[in-house]
Amino acid sequence: MGSKQIAQETFDDAVQENITEFEMDPEEAVREAVQQFESQGVDLSNIVKAVRPPASENGQRQKHQILLTLDSLGRAVAEADMAELPEHLSTFSAQCKEQLAFRYLAGQNGAYPVVFSACQLAAGDRDLLLQAFSTLSALLDGQPDLLEAAGQELVLQSLRERREDAEMTLAGIRCVRHACLKHERNRQDFVKAGILPLLTGAIVQHGGSAEVVKTAASALRVMTFDDDIRVPFGHAHDHAKMIVLENDGLRVLIEAAKAFRDNSGVLSELCATLSRLSVRNEFCQEIVDLGGLDFMVTLLADCMEHPDVVRQVLGAIRAVAGNDDVKDALVDAGATELIVLAISQHLGNPQICEQGCAALCVLALRKPENCGVIMEGGGALAALQAMKAHPREVAVQAFPFLLGRAEWRRAFSKPSLCHPFSGVR
Question: What is the model's pTM?
Fold first, then answer.
């Protein structure tokens, strides 16, 4: 059951009532209104929590600042005022980036047609078009429903025609990513229109740009999501196969990762995307054949001080270990010792503990000999420490039961390794 929603006008009226009827100062009036609605279970994430300017002398209600900015931008677009347009785009974009509530209010008051028209108007001016696309990206963040067919085609056209321009490519990919997150229809429309080769091509063509590689990898990963609750069945698996089979996605990502060994942000995105593409046995094996497995193990050893990279590498190891042959290769490469070290070194991080324990479980699945290696390498003790540190993390608590009953009994026959909660030996 979803949270209750209210209109911006309802919140503004409540704030104004607190000021006029109860003589509160503006800040106190806003705080009181927030507390009042939240106590009733109202979701205020899309509400601008600020005092609206007082009514004018003729009694006309004033607008919030972002709507005033939108009005100015709309006038500049309607009059094709190329001199004023950059300033209004910059101001509106900055306000949209401040918080979801601002861009939601703007979106509900016709911002998308205005920004789309600005993009069309700026078609002949590269710098202005870049600014317009950046504004469109800011507006779409968290509001993918705003984008329609004409907007999709405009973004795709820009990515095709300006593929050599790194900044324009980056702005276009950001629009795609925001439009496809939690929106299955947009994902399918973009894939049908040919977005996948544009994304992998951007990584290859702009392999020296950390931001382009990072954003394009993130956009590829979004194409494999199944996160739109309005759609019972998505095409996540099909999209993952298309990225690998038709666009050489695994090779592209692994080569990009090798070029950014010292950039933890890029490596984190690339590993996260690789894990989303490891959906078939042969894909996992291809990652090994391309040198991805050795790279992951080396990366885990070298980046142990970067929690986000560690978490994503563990997730990638967990994914590729779905292949039984890859399990053996990982164990032979010393992955179990590094996973145990990662858990021990980041014991306070629940995500790393969860991914580490899950990776150990996958390595042990259908492989009793690997289970023994994990136990001998201190995996059980590390997992128990993680269980003690995070008693509410279900995935961490499930470790001993997933690891295998026989090895569990043998390993935990020692009193020093008694289960920390149940007392089972």
Answer: 0.90
